[in-house]
Amino acid sequence: MAEHLLQVEGLKQHFPIKTGFLKKTMLKAVDGVSFTIDKGETLGLVGESGCGKTTVGRSLLRLYKPTAGVIRFKGEEITDTNIQGFRRQMQVVFQDPYSSLNPRMTVADIVGEPLDIHRLYKTQKEREEKIVYLLQMVGLNSDHSRRYAHEFSGGQRQRIGIARALAVDPEFIVCDEPVSALDVSIQAQVINTFEELQQRLGLAYLFIAHDLHVVHHMSRRIAVMYLGKIVETAVADDILARPMHPYTQALISAIPIPDPKKARLRKRIVLEGEVPSPLNLPSGCSFRTRCRYATEQCAQETPELRELAPGHEVSCWNPQ
Amino acid sequence: MANPLLQVKNLHTVFPTQSGEVRAVNGINFNLDRGKVLGIVGESGSGKSVTAYSILRILDYPGNISQGEILYDENDIVKMSNGNMRQIRGARISIIFQDPMTSLNPVYTVENQLTEAIRLHTDRDRKQARERALEMLQLVGVNEPQKRLKQYPYQLSGGMRQRVMIAMALACEPDILIADEPTTALDVTIQAQILELMQELKSKLGMAIIMITHDLGVIAEMCDEIIVMYAGRICERGSADEIFYNPKHEYTKGLLRSIPNTSLAKEVLTPIEGSPVDLLNMPKGCAFAARCGSAMKVCLTEQPEEIRINEDHLASCWLNIKNKAQNIAEGEQANG
């Protein structure tokens, strides 16, 4: 079997939270997540706020120290001591293009900073050339390099963030809700930029978003998260066409359809209630409190991911 | 035919700033009928929220309405005294804001905030107001309403807060509910709950809704009529079906092309190139011309007039005007 670019096994990320005087509770933001990403592939990660999708991305990059689990990049395990070497190969684009760029730095300095840190140039001229090359690659031009971030629109700022991530020539980029803060017409521009770059440079993405349309458009495979666990994973088209986990079904049915006739016809599954607090998870399956099909078994035993169709894994006792 | 509930005529709202006048809303016209849902779509800065704030006269300083009329029940809101306006605001026309986190007062309980509106606009006493508040919370589907009344906003989740906002807006049974991006800050499953609730309440209470959003999906699910705004002007307006299936303005077409659809075929998205216009430097002609693939010379120099496509559809685009002129010319030739 060919080696995966990135392999994650049993990743757990728990945070201690003060819940009273001298009392601490563990917040299980990510609780045993496993997946793989191949070279040049996009894995989409969807879920609602608080389900741990951003934490997964950050733990991969060791922006947090994982509580448990193994992360292998090109077969080699990432640990605290060798993370420096991996930083050049793994980068991130953040959600908010307004707060993820330093307002006091020019665009040239923002994009040039990774080059400085990793000493990727010999002469000052080479540095400048690289910056211009990177800006052009994401659809900006060299005139932009002397300006500050506040002079740009949201879409352009996100492009600066992408250029910064590309500066060190990575093979894998964590895209953490990169288009959620953008207007629809601009969203499409940025999505196309991501896809062009993937084809040109053979990048692999972990594409994190709450918008299933966008994720489906970008990804080959999709993993759906609920309260720190992956509840379903399959090829993108399969998830949309044949969702098996009741949560995925509700999630898909909740998306507004931009087509009035179809919207009038369909019957929506509206989930009752709200996401339980991750500090106080229900026993067994964490979705059972909102699930229409919940049984006695769901309260007692935690379901594991099982392969129910080729490449289609679901963690549910009563898959539909 | 009965008069529409709300008529907006040639509304201009401007924000004078040090670097010049920002014309946030630049001459718009529309009507809202009783019991209908009107959607206003557009990207940030297109003037959709400012339109809503103008109707309620809650514009932030230095914004002001420089021209135009807003007729509600035959009375002009623009010229109304502050006292009369207060009788309408929150009672006859009310609003729910985008962000339920910041639009509730953190230092008052839910009961305090809910009963304030009820006692201001009706002659209920404290006890009756409390009963009404309880009734409203039940109506919007808040669980354990007794307990919730005593709680502060920080103790509620986002979806619950938005329900409290809706309860507050509907407590005085308004004729018009303005919903300014009511679900943008919420998760999809909670968004589905809130949209379902609004639809249910609309048929129960028979109010008209102005739904402001940038999400074409939400618009498609909720609205009878749609207004598409760009740079403070209306590009196109008409029935939902006309706008979605027969768009006549290049901006609307671009918007519809740029959303990833649910169909399984993956196509490359066709974005609208360029960035939104700078409201301080508005072009002379059509505001969209700089980003429009089919722009002609006339688009850069003159603003297109709004022309009627059919009974349920109006659009302001030179392409339509040209086509119409051509059709007329051809018709004359054929006749002559």
Helix content bin of chain A: 25-40%
What is the overall shape of chain B?
A: elongated
Oligomeric state of the chains in view: heterodimer
What's the gyration radius of chain A in Å? 21 Å
Strand order of the largest sheet of chain B: 6-7-8-3-9-10-12-11
Short description:
With 320 residues, chain A is α/β, with parallel strands linked by helices. Chain A is 32% helix and 24% strand.
Structure, described:
The complex is a heterodimer of chains A (320) and B (336). Helix content of chain A is 32%, strand content 24%. In chain A, helix 6 links the parallel strand 7 (172-176) and strand 8. Chain A has 320 residues and is of the alpha/beta class. In chain A, the strands form two sheets. In chain A, strands 6-7-8-3-9-10-12-11 form an eight-stranded mixed beta sheet, with helices on both faces. Chain A has a four-stranded antiparallel beta sheet with strand order 2-1-4-5. The radius of gyration of chain B is 22 Å and the shape is elongated. In chain B, a hairpin with a 2-residue loop joins strand 9 (225-230) and strand 10. The longest helix of chain B is centred in the middle third of the chain and has 18 residues, at 188-205. Chain B is of the alpha/beta class and 336 residues long. In chain B, 37% of the residues lie in helices and 23% in strands. At the A-B interface, helix 6, helix 7, helix 8, helix 9 and helix 10 of A face helix 7, helix 8, helix 9 and helix 10 of B.
